Amino acid sequence: MSTTGYISKIMGLIMAAGIIVPTMNGMATAQETASETYSKATIVIQGTGIVTRKPEFARVILNVSARSETIPEASAASKEASKKVLEKLKAFKIADTDIKTLNMDVSISRKSSGKFSGSSEDGYRTSQQFELILRDQTTVGQVIGELLAIDNVRVQSLFWDIEKSQEVDDEARKAAVVDARHRAEIYTQAAGTKLGKVLQIREGGGARPFNQPVAYGAMAAPAGVSASPAAEMPVVPPSELTFESGIYIVWELQP
Known about the structure:
Pfam families: SIMPL. This is SIMPL domain-containing protein. With 255 residues, the chain is an alpha+beta fold. The protein has a domain at 53-166 and 207-246: Alpha-Beta Plaits. It is 33% helix and 34% strand. It is built from 5 helices and 7 strands; from the N terminus they run H-H-E-E-H-E-E-H-E-H-E-E. The strands form 2 sheets. A 4-stranded antiparallel beta sheet has the order 3-4-2-5. A 3-stranded antiparallel beta sheet has the order 1-7-6. The relative contact order is 0.22.
């Protein structure tokens, strides 16, 4: 049987089975449709918005903890330290609304009993975490020094913030959109095209909280040393805080 006859026979069997075989013209039409669908040229640009503000207050996370053989003893020691903390803050005229408890915890304290023997119970630990807002930036170091002079007190973190942070975040977002459009227009003008409609907007590349805390780490008075009178901690507020927002925008390009 010739090659032509063999192909005709195979095609006949396929048609008899009801299988649809696209013709070359049909395949070309499908390719043209797909090409037309994805032929729209686009440009994807990342924009960045940055806004700076002077810090308005310090936010301090304070940890008061104590360890003892029994829960009541550990709790009493922690309670006594917390009482002293609140007294110190009252002396500095810190408003009640600027003091709040973030967390309280009671756990089993363990000590290592050997390299390969694991650990054993060594009593109980109680801890209480406070958040303080210190609005007078000139006394932050003094307040922290006074608090660290109290037994069982540690400063977990310290960072700076402003009151209306949401408004500043929104300014940064708007600035990011302006920046993205500015960049897109430069590219399209250089390429001899124009920006069309916006196809997609996606946040990313630096959303809040970009305003990084000024990390001072956990601070505590040396063990067995009483800081009386308390030494003022060298805390220097930053000159400004940076709020940043990032965005990706996809535009359709026009000739």
